[in-house]
Structures are given as structure tokens and as C-alpha cells.
Amino acid sequence: MHVQIINFRLDGVSEAEYVALCDDLARAYAEVPGLNRKVWIANPDTGTYGGVCFWRDRKAMEEFATTDLFASVANHPNLADIEVSDFAVLEAPMRVTRGEF
Known about the structure:
Strand order of the largest sheet: 2-3-1-4
Number of domains: 1
Shape: globular
Radius of gyration: 14 Å
Order of helices and strands: EHEEHHEH
CATH class: Alpha Beta
Oligomer: single chain
Helix content: 25-40%
Distance between the termini: 11 Å
């Protein structure tokens, strides 16, 4: 498993408009090969939004980066200061702490 964390701030769009966009995109993300789960996150107090993606493996994450869906989000004019981090998962301790899906 591989985990990707994406953070950004909204620019020129309200939180309500952003949530509506997320609702529209959720079905497309549900169809992404190799994406086990996406958790949509928001902290209105800090103006930070984003997602935590749980990928089958790093290759699935990298393949997604070549899609039109990825490009449409990465280049969206209302998402600013995008930061992306990704991590390998330590499988053995994850199972102990019930981190498996």
C-alpha cells in the first residue's frame, strides 16, 4: 500500500462551491484503478483542504498522475499552494493498529 497526502487552500471559490465540486468528482475518483480509498479533508479554521489517498501501490499512484482527471484537479484555477507528499506504508505495524481496510 502507498499513501498520498494532498493539501491546498481555496482561491476565488467558497467552501460550499468547493464541497459541490468534491461531490461531483467523488464518482470519478471511485473509478480510479488502484485507488483503495480517498478521504476528503477540510479545516476551515486554517483554510486547508485536500485529501488522503490510499493506493494499492506506488505504481497505481504514478499511473493516476498521467490521467485527465489528475490534470484537471492539479491545474484547477481555484486550488492554490498545492502540496503533495507520499509515503510507503509499514505493513506489519499497520496490521497491529488495525490500519488495514
